[in-house]
Amino acid sequence: MIELKPLSKEDVRHFYMWLNDEEAIKYSLSLFQRLTSKEQIDTWYESLFVEQNVYNIGVFLKTTGQLIGYAGLSGLSKLNHSGEYFIFIGDKSQWGKGVGTKVTEEVVAYGFDVLQLNRIMLTVSELNYGGVKAYERAGFTVEGVLREACYRDGAYHDKIVMAMLRSSYVKNSQE
């Protein structure tokens, strides 16, 4: 279905369309709401290649090699053995096909198996029902709610805090 591979400098062209699509970025990083020009997107994209304490990976269709989004872990802490999961599927034709769940499972496995993390957390808008379902299927559990932490469509919405611990990952992967 998908293949995770490093992003290339040329892959930025996909983000020009995606980041200017209100529906595609609706529940994504707040930063994406402000990136509207080619120059702004270029500056942000270039930063992906120099960021420290971040694991960024491109999401490609296995059959065609087409880039459909990116995902990874940010805020990686060697001291705390933790990080924050993120995903952005910009190609809307791939929504609702289980891509988010598969990407999440693979990035989580990388975080626990390769980076030796103990905890991976994320936040998701309460209205992003597909995202919440994908995270639950991948093994994340709800830890709490950040009340009115997200402003979209002229209203405040809660963000759900979810996490997975190494102990539950190991347990789930052995079943």
What would you note in describing this structure?
A hairpin with a 2-residue loop joins strand 6 and strand 7. The chain is α+β, with helices and mostly antiparallel strands. Strands 1-2-3-4-5-7-6 form a seven-stranded mixed beta sheet. Helix 4 crosses helix 5. The protein contains six helices and seven strands, in the order βαααβββαβαββα. It has one domain: Aminopeptidase (3-Layer(aba) Sandwich), CATH 3.40.630.30. The model has no long low-confidence stretch (mean pLDDT 93). Helix content is 31%, strand content 34%.
On the 0 to 100 scale, the average pLDDT is: 93
List segments where confidence is low: pLDDT < 50 over at least 5 consecutive residues. Answer: none
Quickly count the domains.
1
Q: Mind summarizing the main beta sheet?
A: 7 strands, mixed
Assign the CATH class: Alpha Beta
Q: What share of the residues does DSSP label as strand, in percent?
A: 25-35%
**Helix content bin:** 25-40%
Envelope shape? globular
Concise summary:
The protein has a 7-stranded mixed β-sheet with strand order 1-2-3-4-5-7-6. Helix content is about 30%, strand content about 35%. It is of the alpha+beta class.
Architecture blueprint of SSEs:
Elements: E1 2-5, H1 12-18, H2 22-25, H3 38-47, E2 55-61, E3 67-77, E4 82-89, H4 99-113, E5 119-125, H5 129-138, E6 141-152, E7 155-165, H6 166-174
Parallel strand pairs: 4-5
Antiparallel strand pairs: 1-2, 2-3, 3-4, 5-7, 6-7
